[in-house]
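Shape matters. Shown next:

___
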Amino acid sequence: MFAVRAGWARYAVGALLIGLGFVQRVATQPTAAKAPSPAELARRAEVVARFGTAQVTVGQLEESILNQNPFMQQRYLTKEAVRAQLERSLRFELLADEAERRGYRKHDAVVLAVKQNSVQALIKQDFDDKITTASILGEDVKHYYDEHRDEFERAQTRRASVLLVASEAEAKALLAQAKAADVQAFRELVRTKSVDETNRQRGGDLRYFDAEGTVLDAPAEHVDPAIAKAAYALKQVGDTSAIVNAGDKFAVVKLTGLRAAESDSPKQADERIRMRLWRERRQTAIDTRLDELRKLQKPEVHPELVDLVRLDMGAAPVPGQGLPSGFPHTRPGPVMSAPAE
């Protein structure tokens, strides 16, 4: 809120305010501006509230409002709203003073909060304010695009459903029905006739996959090569393949979706590349600083002593415990049948 008293009091009262419904906002560094005139400095230095050695000035009251987001700032267009903010500021200062008097700054939780906020301020000033997406040079973006073209070019993908049966005779008996069925009817046919439990539960859906059979949303999963080849031989959505020999089963494939090949231009990929380079450079800068600090401080570490750590966490919490009944977290999930052996 304000930097009126010593910083320790600010952090000490933070934990206390949580239970009282206050929110302490950390002020961001002001942008560079011309030096204020003596008259402006005098105006901002006017004291609107004081007790003991603490005070709230006009400038601090202004900052408490301007450090909020633009939407929240609109609440302070009347004198009554600004006076209400002054009252909140005074209440904060009174609690900060009391926390300081009672020694809260020495509490472990408060000391940890000070460290955490100090680290965040350090990272913001030394890294986040200096390494931004705007600081990435256009030539660096172009170089990354040229070196990683495969990230911005996507081959055609297809979606298909497959009916799996145990013998070629069964496949022949169902082929005409499969060809005549629309996508929904084909999936119902799979649910009643497929000999594979997983295939049956999915209605034969294989999701989108590339020509090599790699499933897009699950790269570790692969469609049988013979089935993938049959799907890529079909011309239009709704077309059905002939009988396919797929290992120990026989398959009939119906094409259910087509996605054309795509390619992002350098302009389309610009923001994505900048974000990636920003993350990489920011992390590299932080790691470099940490390496320098390690060399300077020469910390002595004994990783073998972690064996002495004992964590008594008690019983695992019940899922949804403490949430109102009826929340999605507390509703029982669907009962899934086990796959056939």
